[in-house]
Amino acid sequence: MATATQAARALPDPLQRIVEARHHDPFSVLGRHLDEDGGLVVRVFLPRAERVRLVEAAAAMTRIEGTDLFIWRGAPEALPERYQLEWEDASGAVHRTHDPYCLPPQLGDFDLHLFGEGRHWHAYRFLGAHLHQVDGIAGVRFAVWAPNAARVSVVGDFNAWDGRAHPMRVRGGSGVWELFIPELGPGGLYKYEIRDRHGNVQVKIDPYAQSFQERPETAGHLCPETRYRWGDAGWMRARTDADWQQRPFSVYEVHLGSWQRDADGGFLNYRVLAKQIGDYVEALGFTHVELLPITEHPLDASWGYQCTGYFAPTSRFGSPDDFRFFIDHLHQRGIGVLLDWVPAHFPKDAYALARFDGTALYEHADPRLGEHKDWGTLIFNFGRNEVKNFLLSSALYWLEEFHLDGLRVDAVASMLYLDYSRDAGEWIPNKYGGNENLEAVEFLRELNRVAHERHPGTLMIAEESTSWPAVSRPTYLGGLGFSMKWNMGWMHDTLSYMSKDPIYRHFHHDLLTFGLLYAFTENFVLPFSHDEVVHGKGSMIDKMPGDGWQKFASLRLLYTLMFSYPGKKLLFQGCEFAQGREWRFDDALDWELLERPQHQGIKRLVTDLNHCYRTLPALHQQDFASEGFEWIDCHDSSQSVLSYLRKDRNGETLAVGVFNFTPVPREHYRIGVPEAGFYRELINSDAELYGGSNVGNQGGVETEAVSWMGRPYSIPIALPPLGGLILVRESQAEAPEAGACGDTADSEVSAA
To answer: Where on the tree of life does the source sit, at the highest rank (predicted)?
Structure first.
């Protein structure tokens, strides 16, 4: 008697390839077909079935001996085109479903054409897993791009993760595989099993999955359609019309996994975080929250920057609708939400994008183009249309589906340069012999062009640390098209200066003044970000030299400088109350420090600085224009003192910033001013309520008709030790009321 193996080997080649899960076109074999004599033949392959019958024909199917193939022959009129299978498994359970292999292709040719050209901005709507109906039959439509695969199957908890059960059809030269599985609904788990052209089989995640299991598990969820009802229509309308360049923009950068934890040390849900962060940020007066990447990622220690799920909010904190609530809640409280987004590189995890179909698909094959050795990651192939489309669709997905107010694009410098962090011989020049990554440049321009066109008011922000020109200039002027760029030079120079003992600072005065030579060449954000408080760099308070008093005074001085200096503002979580230790991604902030007066003082100062920055036009309207800034004196290196003016766009409101970077109080320090009047002390970082020594000017000082520093008037001020002052001319109606910034209640900040 023939064995099962011998029986399988005796099959015609097409059937044998179905049994062995090697067939690239299962629809040509399985399903409903007319034979040469005009009769009907139906073939199904059900690995877990003991018996199978055709419901409409009321006929049992015959098992092909030694296989899980079942066959039926009959008259065409005996069976409709859309028919059901009823099958019994080994436990006796009976299942009924429509045969997926009797259904036509579901993806439109136009979608596939646009995707192949890299111009389908909503590829996530047809790729991935989606609830779908075919001729009234409900189920899930799966689609994945794997052009070099020999066979792709959908596997999941609904088919015992058996790659033989649901092989997909390939749509011609598009490289896209699809399959509609009837009677399948939300709630299950799935992946793709991919057989490459060398016979190797891998199980991969869906690159377009919109939700995943919580790590360390990696399967995608079959998601229900969102039923979330947004309540932020007013915010979205106002954002579209807002002139963001002339508005205050003050960002609180947050890592959701370490901002706060529950009582057991576990993660909080997006909805809980929304309310807690909303209360906190509103009281502090920041205009926006920026989230470290919440795109799904396997490794907590990557902080989200090694992403595997480019369309999925991480399940660590809840569902996609929970994340929608987070954004909606903050919008309704007047707080914008930005997301760190990482198109530069992706991890090598075998279950994810790396060598997705057995070839270098999303990455370059040549490691001189396709690998970041510093980070142990792979570089996207920006010259491949489908890869570019994947990333463009991801960006628009977050902006459209989650109402995000913008993306901060990570590691832009690594994208722009082919020789980024590479020695000679480790990189390949472009076609002109240069080190510019021309494909990445074009991708970034298209990204920004499309984002701004489709979502006016969206902010696209570059983390870019080199002198690449026109990063934040429009693409039609030859720029990269970003809204803003992080000012890494200012950050490094300023922190370098502040880390020096005050006795030596006069030798390094240029570190403070050099930044104004290029401050208006880009739309800059001044960032004290997460990168500055990890990897042995110390916390912000620990960067300051001297004893405890000097450390806190210097930090207050630094923040006062930042909030009065040209450029938008960004501060990482914990820095607003002088977190004492370096940031740890796996632990909550040291909130207990807020029981100590010195830490309370730092938080109070940041709150008041935000209030002044938001309410005084001179401090925000011309952050990107040279007309908004003027030195009073940048040459007093011997005393380590700086002074300057900030102006609004009409030149009517005026703010004066004066900064003493030594612990020596300076009585009657005279500075020149352009107009007579009473100059009110709006902020004094040395005020007692901030934890300072309270050296100041009793509310303000009157000008004297003494020309000084080339100006017709001057004011003699008491300049506090390691202190910064912000003064305004009292006649300015737009300025906050006297004492407002020194005694701002949380409710006042919220109203601002």
So the answer is: Bacteria
CB-based contact 176:95 (threshold 8 Å): no
- The percentage of residues in the chain with a pLDDT greater than 70, rounded to a whole number, is 96
Crossing angle for the helix pair 488-498 and 548-564, nearest 10 degrees?
150
User: What pLDDT, on the 0 to 100 scale, is given for residue 730?
Assistant: 81
Q: How far apart are alpha carbons 72 and 85 in whole angstroms?
A: 12
Say how far apart CA 194 and CA 181 lie, in whole Å: 18
Give me the active site residues, please.
Answer: 410, 463
For every residue of 576-634, DSSP letters joined together read GGT-SS---TTS---GGGGGSHHHHHHHHHHHHHHHHHHH-GGGTTTTT-GGGEEEEES
The pLDDT value given to residue 6: 53
Tens digit of each residue's pLDDT (9 = 90 or more) over 658-688: 999 999 999 999 999 999 999 999 999 999 9
| Strands 176-182 and 345-347, bridge-based pairing | unpaired
Contacts of 207 (CB under 8 A, 6+ apart): 127, 128, 144, 145, 310, 311, 352, 353, 356, 362, 390
Pairing of strands 336-341, 406-409: parallel
Range with the poorest average pLDDT among 3-17, 127-141, 325-339: 3-17
- Strand 459-462 to strand 406-409: parallel, antiparallel, or no bridges (unpaired)? parallel
**What per-residue confidence (pLDDT) applies to 9?**
59
Strands 40-45 and 94-98, how do they pair? unpaired
Supply 299's token pair.
């490794």
